[in-house]
Automatic annotation (TrEMBL):
Domain Cas12f1-like TNB: 305-369
Superkingdom in the source lineage: Bacteria
Keyword DNA-binding among record annotations: yes
Protein name, entry field: Transposase
GO terms for biological process, alphabetical: DNA recombination; transposition
Keywords on record: DNA recombination, DNA-binding, Transposition
Annotated family: In the C-terminal section; belongs to the transposase 35 family.
Provenance organism: Kyrpidia spormannii
Single GO MF descriptor: DNA binding
């Protein structure tokens, strides 16, 4: 059963919101309290024992631990353990100058976590959350309304994460099991991933579909130029500045938005065409295999191949389609017409031409080879002629806004 993470805005009356925010402050107090006792122990004895048994003993001395749900308290305890494990791993490799994990700032609203169906109940758009048994206001349970961005057939809610920030307010992140649609047919398709053509799909009737990656490339180049004006992290000072991280987030949001548009449109078209299996090139280890010089390597290594594959996999799962990964070795150099492997057949970026008469778009040729590798049959009836694959359909992908620009602000 497909699993999704959904985000929803939490609508609550002022009193309910106050109770939830107080529970989040309790989580911050508990987190900092655990850290304080571990630091105190280290200063007195020269060592510290970061185990569940030790932290459970400390939790019994923290009065704010009864201010929110018991399993959420255990989640806070596990956050402390993970923070120390990460710290020890960094210190072992000499990648940190700190002595201990840091405290959370005063007044911070820590997330409330609910796991495995315990402590919460979702009925349509009403979410009921359990709180601690020792709250001074006596409130042990609250109910809020969730405003979701889309209608999803939820079968079961696994986990709930409640967060807060000044801009978005209270947000609920739900890990849910959803009911998948049924495929309309039994057709097959193979997908070749690239940079200039982000997705090239070849169907079992020889038709080809292409999604250009040029807009993504231009966005990445733009933000690279903007970041060039900001002091970058160095080996001596690896910490990124606030401005540098802000620019990275802006770029990431725009690129992810485009990738979601692209993959959602592709999967929807496959489902409407009756596809039930998608074969996609396995790009594991591609960054280690490619070496085209510093400039091109930097560009290709940053290309989100893995992210595209994961998006296609989980979106296809919602439509009941299976995604299989295929070894793509030499698929771009092999002639689909005669099977000869010759690198020079790729005349330039977008053209593959062989002496046998096979001539088509280079990425489509790679997609046809992946199709043959996955299903042991060619998508082209007559392999002596490029046929329908010679004229692929190009799907235009655009952002919701007309231009991509950086708001005027001082460069830090």
């Amino acid at each position: 059963m497909p699993i999704l993470t959904l985000q929803a805005k939490v609508l609550a009356d002022p009193e309910t919101e106050r109770v939830l925010l107080d529970a989040m402050l309790c989580a911050t107090k508990v987190y900092n309290g655990l850290l304080w006792h571990l630091r105190e122990e280290f200063e007195n004895t020269g060592k510290t024992k970061v185990t569940r048994q030790r932290l459970n003993a400390i939790l019994k001395t923290l009065p704010r631990a009864k201010g929110y749900y018991s399993l959420s308290v255990q989640a806070t305890r596990d956050e402390v353990i993970q923070a120390y494990r990460s710290f020890f791993a960094l210190r072992k490799t000499g990648r940190t100058r700190h002595q201990m994990p840091g405290f959370r700032r005063k007044g911070m609203y820590s997330p409330l976590r609910y796991f495995d169906g315990y402590g919460f109940r979702l009925e349509q758009d009403r979410l009921t959350l359990s709180l601690g048994t020792g709250r001074p206001d006596g409130v042990r349970q609250v109910t809020v309304t969730l405003q979701m961005g889309r209608d999803v057939p939820i079968q079961r809610v696994r986990n709930v994460l409640l967060t807060y920030d000044a801009k978005s307010g209270l947000r609920a992140h739900l890990v849910v099991e959803v009911k998948a649609k049924e495929p309309k047919g039994h057709r097959k398709v193979a997908v070749d991933l690239g940079e200039t053509q982000a997705i090239t799909a070849v169907f079992d009737d020889g038709t080809a579909l292409m999604y250009s990656g040029r807009l993504i490339k231009s966005i990445r180049r733009y933000w690279q130029k903007v970041r060039a004006k900001v002091k970058p992290p160095t080996a001596e000072n690896p910490r990124k500045s606030r401005r540098y991280r802000q620019l990275e987030r802006k770029e990431s949001r725009q690129v992810n938005h485009l990738l979601h548009i692209m993959t959602a449109d592709f999967v929807r078209r496959c489902w409407e065409a009756g596809v039930n299996t998608i074969a996609i090139g396995d790009l594991t280890g591609i960054r280690e295999r490619m070496d085209h010089g510093p400039a091109l390597n930097q560009r290709l290594h940053a290309w989100p191949y893995g992210k595209i594959v994961k998006m296609i996999e989980y979106k296809a799962g919602l439509y009941g389609m299976e995604v299989v990964r295929i070894n793509e070795s030499y698929s771009s150099q092999t002639c689909h017409g005669c099977g000869e492997i010759r690198k020079s057949n790729r005349v330039f970026r977008g053209l593959y031409r062989c002496d046998c008469g096979w001539r088509t778009q280079a990425d489509v040729n790679g997609g046809a080879n992946l199709f043959f590798a996955a299903y042991k049959v060619s998508p082209v009836a007559d392999r002596r002629s490029s046929g329908a694959v010679a004229t692929p359909v190009v799907v235009p992908i655009r952002l919701d806004w007309h231009t991509v620009h950086e708001p005027k602000s001082p460069v830090a």
